[in-house]
Specification:
With 313 residues, the protein is an alpha/beta fold. It folds into two domains: 2-231, Rossmann fold, CATH 3.40.50.300; 235-296, Alpha-Beta Plaits (2-Layer Sandwich). It contains eleven helices and 13 strands. Strands 5-6-7-3-8-9 form a six-stranded mixed β-sheet, with helices on both faces. The chain has a four-stranded antiparallel β-sheet with strand order 11-12-10-13, with helices on one face. A hairpin with a 2-residue loop joins β1 (14-25) and β2. It is elongated, with a radius of gyration of 24 Å. The two termini are 46 Å apart. 32% of the residues are buried. The structure holds adenosine-5'-triphosphate and magnesium ion. Adenosine-5'-triphosphate binds next to β2 and α2. Residues 25, 28, 30, 48, 50-56, 95 line the site of adenosine-5'-triphosphate.
Length: 313
């Protein structure tokens, strides 16, 4: 009974529900039977290699593409039939965007604000996104990162309940990326839900409450970042340098799965208390490396395991 109650509770707070979504372009199956739910107020990530179907999925949800089949419910609306009502409540930063070359930064914000009933003060957005100095600059004169910031500000101008950000931080410098992360958290704090499409593992790991890993049009795993790491990449790496040629006795430690030696650099992979076990065994053999350290598994390890490739490959 308790499980049933929990399910009812989750369903009630889901702001996005997608079931068996499918979209083809000729013979290319871009989205192949995708289903997921997003709880209100979450930052939900879609992570996957190039061509996985992420943009197609989020653009179907924003009523920008028509899926072949499947069910979509966003804010109680069906993007296929309620596009105008839906657009009033969502903010979109698209992967491919453009504005007229001669439009000025402030004019673009003012224009977007003028067609929305519930608007934020765009002067504040100018400040928040570091565009105040560029307010009179034309779109053509902005750098790639400045254009990106403008598109994010434009996505927020209607005070949306759901914000779709597709490759938001691509092209931003490291400082701007950090600012963007803080601002995404502040979007959530305001109560909005964020759908984040990204290639950056650190971004997904740090920002997302839940995330789906998409590969070849399918969701291959979905959970919290830590849940994915625990489930798919429990092995840790212990790294140190040693001039000892023969370290084969380390294999006597049952928890160790693999030892890789490259010159003096030794990398030991295993699960459980590997660091303590390796340290004890090294000391026992008279080896006391000063650089012994542990690397915890990351989302990158999960991604590699599930898709067999590095992101961007
Ligand atoms: N308008 C289109 N016409 C034909 N094929 C398309 C179109 N848009 C996307 N595709 C194809 O659909 C597949 C999924 O593309 P999509 O843009 O959804 O991937 P993505 O995961 O967003 O990739 P990226 O990380 O490169 O942005 C790809 O094989 C792509 O070539
Ligand atoms: Mg894309």
């Amino acid at each position: 009974m308790a499980i049933q109650d929990e399910r009812v509770c989750f369903t009630l707070t889901a702001i996005i529900k997608v079931e068996n979504l499918r979209k083809t372009y000729g013979t290319t199956v871009a989205v192949d039977d995708i289903s997921f739910e997003v709880a209100e107020g979450d930052i939900f990530g879609l992570l996957g290699p190039n061509g996985a179907g992420k943009t197609t999925t989020v653009e179907c949800l924003q009523a920008l593409r028509q899926p072949d089949s499947g069910m979509m419910n966003i804010l109680g609306l069906d993007p296929r039939h309620d596009a105008p009502a839906l657009r009033r409540q969502i903010g979109s930063q698209l992967q491919e965007s453009a504005l007229p070359d001669r439009i000025k930064v402030w004019e673009a914000l003012d224009l977007f604000a003028s067609v929305t009933p519930e608007k934020l003060d765009w002067q504040v957005l100018l400040e928040q996104w570091g565009l105040a100095e560029k307010r009179k600059s034309t779109f053509a004169s902005l750098s790639g990162g400045q254009r990106q910031r403008l598109f994010i500000a434009l996505a927020l101008v209607n005070n949306p309940r759901i914000v779709f950000l597709d490759e938001m931080t691509t092209g931003l410098d490291p400082a701007a990326r950090r600012i963007a992360w803080d601002l995404i958290r502040s979007i959530r704090e305001r109560g909005a839900t964020v759908i984040l499409v990204t290639h950056f593992m650190d971004e997904a790991e740090k920002l997302c409450d839940r995330l789906a890993i998409v590969d070849r049009g399918k969701i291959v795993a979905m959970d919290t970042p830590q849940g994915l790491i625990t489930q798919y990449a429990s092995e840790v790496r212990v790294i140190f340098t040693s001039d000892f040629a023969d370290l084969s006795w380390l294999h006597n430690i049952a928890q160790i799965k693999k030892i890789t030696k490259s010159g003096p650099r030794v990398e030991v992979e295993g699960s459980g208390p590997v660091l303590a076990l390796v340290a004890a065994s090294l000391v026992e053999h008279g080896i006391t490396p000063t650089d012994l350290r542990i690397e915890q598994p990351t989302l990158e390890d999960v991604f590699l395991k599930l898709t067999g490739k590095d992101i961007g490959e």
